[in-house]
Amino acid sequence: MRALRIIVCIKQVPHPDEAKVDPETGLVIRDGVPMVLNPNDYFAIEESLRLKETGGGEGVAMTMGPPAAEAVLREAISLGVDDGVLLCHRSFAGADTLATAYALARGIECLGGYDLVLTGSRSTDGETGQVGPQIAEFLGIPHAAELIRPVEVEGDHLLAWHQTDYGQELLQMPLPALLTVAKGMNEPRLPSLRGKMRAKKQAITVWGPEEIKADPDRIGLAGSPTRMLETTLPARKTRSKMLEGSLAEQVAALLHELADMLPGKAGGRP
Ligand SMILES: Cc1cc2nc3c(=O)[nH]c(=O)nc-3n(C[C@H](O)[C@H](O)[C@H](O)COP(=O)(O)OP(=O)(O)OC[C@H]3O[C@@H](n4cnc5c(N)ncnc54)[C@H](O)[C@@H]3O)c2cc1C
Questions:
Q1: CA nearest ligand 1 atom 51, residue
Q2: How far apart are CA 223 and CA 215, in angstroms?
Q3: I need a surface site. Which of 2, 72, 154, 182 has the fewest CB within 10 A?
Q4: Tens digit of pLDDT for each residue in 164-213?
Q5: How far apart are the first and last CA of the chain?
Q6: Could you identify the atom of ligand 1 that is nearest to the CA of residue 228?
Q7: Domains of the chain, with CATH numbers?
Q8: Does residue 269 have a pLDDT over 70?
Q9: What are the tens digits of pLDDT across the range 5-15?
Q10: Is 130 helix (H, G, I), strand (E, B) or coil?
Q11: Other CB atoms within 10 Å distance of the CB of residue 65
Q12: Distance 100 CA to ligand 1 centre (A)
C-alpha cells in the first residue's frame, strides 16, 4: 500500500424525505428545505479515510454549489478529510451534469496532483449517476462505477470490485483513476469531537471560474447542452378496501381478494 492523494467529490442535496419538485418549473425546490450531504457520498468519504489510514496520504473534499454547500465540506473534515474546496460562483449556476463534471475536473486539475478521485455512485436529487464517469473523461483517466468492496492498491495500480448489470467484476486499473462508490460498500464512521472542533476552525478554499481556469462557455447554463422540459412524478397505483366481519371472515375475504389478483384472473396480472 502506498500513500495516496485522494480527492472526494461530494454534493449537498435536499433532505431525501423533504425533496419536492416545483410543478410549474419542474426544478427541485431547494429554498426552505433542509440540506444534507448526499447519503451515497458518506461511503466515498469513508473509503478515502480507510485508504489514508492504511497507506498514509491526504484527502481533499470538493463540492460545487452555493455558499451554504460549505457545510458538507465541514462535515467531511469532521469525519477526517484533510481539506475542503468549494467551487462557488453565480456563473456555475444552472449547470447540467456535463457542466458540473467539467467544473469539478478543472478544480481537481488545479489542485496540483492526485492519485485517486472518489465520488458517490448517484445523488438522491438529480440521480443520474453521470457526474463521476464524466469527470474521469474530462481528466482522461480510467474509471469504474459502483465500487462494492474496499480498494486494494498495489504500486501504481489498484484493484477494484465493481457491480455490473451481469454480476461483479474485478478490475485492475493504473493510477490515477476514478471510482464511484456504491451505497453499503463500507460502514461510514461518525465524526469525533476532535474532528468537529477541527471542522469548525478549518479554512475552506473557495474557487470561482478564474481560479480553476474554466472556459466560460463550458460552465453553468451556458455550458449545459441539456434542457429540462418537463418532470413528472411516478403515478401511484394503490387500491384500498376495508374488510368487514369477524377476523376469520376478514382473513377469508383477504385470501379471496389475493386469489383474484393472481395472473390470468380478473384484476390479476396478464
Ligand atoms: C438542464 C438542467 C438544468 C439544471 N439546473 C440546475 C440548477 O439550476 N441548479 C442546480 O442546483 N441543479 C441543476 N441541475 C441539476 C444538476 O445538473 C445536478 O445537480 C448535477 O449535475 C449533478 O447531477 P446528479 O445529481 O445527477 O449527480 P450524480 O451523477 O447522480 O452524482 C454522482 C456523484 O457525483 C458527485 N457530484 C454530483 N454533483 C456534484 C457537485 N455539485 N459537487 C461535487 N460532487 C458532485 C457526488 O459524489 C455524487 O454522489 C440541472 C440539471 C439539468 C439536466
A1: 96
A2: 9
A3: 154
A4: 988 999 999 999 999 999 999 999 999 999 999 999 999 999 999 999 99
A5: 56
A6: 1
A7: 4-223 (3.40.50.620), 239-270 (no CATH)
A8: no
A9: 999 999 999 99
A10: coil
A11: 22
A12: 6
